[in-house]
Structures are given as structure tokens and as C-alpha cells.
Structure prediction request, 369 residues.
Amino acid sequence: MGSLILGLETSCDETAGAVVEDGVRVRSNVIATQHELHRKYAGVVPEIASRAHVERLMPVVEEAVEKAGVGLSDLDAIAVGNRPGLIGSLLVGVGAAKALAWSLDVPIVGVDHVAAHLYAAQLDRDDVLAYPGVGLVVSGGHTSLYRVDGPMEEAGGGGGKNEGRSGGGITVIGKTIDDAVGEAYDKAAVILGLGYPGGPKLDRAAQQGNAKFVRLPRSMLGRDSLDFSFSGLKTALLYAVRGTPDHETREFPRELDALTEQERLDFSASFQAAAIDTLIVKLERALDQMGDARSVIIGGGVSANSLLRKRVVELADERGIEACLPPMGYCLDNAAMIAGLAHHRLQAGAVDDLELAAIATTGVKRGKR
Ligand code: KG4
Ligand code: ZN
Prediction:
């Protein structure tokens, strides 16, 4: 059964709308970013984000429908990322999705943002991702490893409510105990004076620097752990750049201005090497522990990272499994991944109703490896 689904995504600081056909053919993918609003705070301010979603969402929806070359009456369902995220931001998308679904008399499908990131690699491709796979979602809010047995968080599609259950299609097998890797990138970019949002800028700088300039820590948390820790890496970078702060005054001996351009590039490359090495070691461990993985599936903003993409392809080649990377346009928060995954929920009858709630936490739960 074919489907044409409009997806909405407002969980953080991107207001996004997309139309996807049959779960894979992206007919439009519109993203209105709010970076300029949050830049001066060097991070997302929740209240500003929700207000901006209110202003931008309907123009984004109109553009998505127009670019897809369809009418609202052609849509089979309205999908919305309803969890996890900033609650005020999620509410804007969920409210708009309910109004659209009600007025068009089509089903509403709530989609888990984390499951959607793990689905992004499926967009624009005809053959189905190789399951089971080891999943890695790396973004500003998440750094987690998953056992992925299928696109939906519930085994077999669930009972119609967007309620994740452990032991389902996607289970958490490791996660960060402190910062997310995207957050570490953003903070490292502030330490290096690279600007906001920091991830892409640091990635670009790193490509021109010497990764062996300083050796920064790769936190492994013990021999078998699949969890992550990035706060030590961030602090180690701060001390490497500015020196160890004075015991009493807590002042740094060096100013950021003292950095030469070359040092900035070299520190960036050293940070990138440590961050990505850590992710790759954990992926290797997860593959070893899972045993039956046929793929590595990555998603989230940091899956746009040049070194991570290269290393994941190399790792998959070494192991004779498939590297499933999202096309670049679907790494960062977008609504195409929401609309795409909603196709599978619709097919499985896992649809919602006007009671659909916005929920701050993910429905993807921890489970056995
Ligand atoms: O998935 P996303 O748009 O939002 C969240 O769900 O958090 O991810 C945004 C994060 C930011 O922290 C950003 O700095 C990071 O992804 N990011 C990158 C790159 N592009 C985006 N980090 C490293 N390298 C990149 N090329
Ligand atoms: Zn995201």
C-alpha cells in the first residue's frame, strides 16, 4: 500500500516539514533553522525555540507541501516527532499535527525522534537496511548505542500507541553518562573560539590540522562498557588550550587570543581524533558483543562528521558488514526521517489519535545486548 505522509519536526531548534512517499522517496524536506536566534547564547534557549516554532511552522508546512507538488488533500497521514525533546517545542509540533490531522480527517502518527534518526539512512534508498544492526545516534542531545532489529522501537509494530517497550525493535545497549558528543563538539568550539553551532565548524577546522598535536583522553569506562563519557575530553581540551587554572584565583594562564590560527586547527584535529576514536572503539565493542550484527547504522547531527563517516565505512568494510549512513541532508534534525518512519507505523496500524502527548523522554529503552 502506497502512502504520502507529511512529517513535522519541532523537538529542538529546527522547525522542519517534509513530504515522503512510501517511507523512502523524499518529495520535499524543508528545514528552517533557528541558529541565528540562539547564537549569542551559544546554546539553545527553550523559550525562544518554542516561540520561533510557532511563527515558522505553518510557512514551513506550506512550503513542504508546495515543493512536493501535492495538495493537503492528497496526504494519507500527518506524522510528528512527539518525543523526546524540549517539551515546549514538541507541543508546537504536536498541536499543529493534531489540527492538520483533524481538519483533513487523516490519522496522526507520533514518531520517536531517536528511532527516526536511526531510520534516516533508509531515506532515498530502495533496498532495506540490513537488520539486525548496531545503531549509533550521535547529536547535541544524544550519544547512545542500540541493538536495531527493525525500524520501529516496538517489536512488530506495537499496539497502536506510541509506547516504546524494552526488548522491542530498538533497544539501548549503551549511552553517555554525561555530555552528548555533539554537545562536546559545541563546547570545544566555544573553547577554541570557532563560533556557533560548533560541530560543523570544528569538523572543517580539524580537516586542516594535525591530529597528533596533543594527545587528548579517550574515556573508555572499563574494558567492556558500551557507555560514553565526554566531559573529561572537553576539560582536557580547555586545559590544553588555556593552561591549568591557578589554584586560588581559578584564572587561566593563557588567553584564547594567544592561539595562533595553526594551533586552532591542530587543537581541532586533536579533539576530533579523540572524540571519533572513542565512538569507533565503542562501535567495535558493540559489534563484538552483539555477534549477529549485519550493519552499522548511524544517525543524528554528528553523523554528518567527515571523520566519523570515513571511519564507520572502514570499520564496516573490515567486518564485512554494511555501513548505513544517512545522506547528508538527513543527518541533522529533519522531518523527512519522521515522515519516512511514520509509513512503517501506519502500515503496522501503530497510529495515534488526538490524545497524542508530547513527551520529553525517548520511548526507546535499555535492553539486553
Ligand atoms: O541531530 P541534531 O540536529 O540535533 C539534536 O537532536 O541534538 O544534532 C545537532 C548536533 C550539534 O551538536 C552539532 O554541533 C552537531 O550535531 N554536528 C556536528 C557536525 N554537524 C553537526 N558535529 C560534528 N561534526 C559535524 N560535521
Ligand atoms: Zn536530533
Summary: Residues 12, 139-141, 182-183, 185-186, 197-200, 203, 300-302, 304-305, 332-333 surround KG4 (ligand 1) (CB under 6 Å). Residues 261-290 form the longest helix (30 residues). The two ends are 34 Å apart (CA to CA).
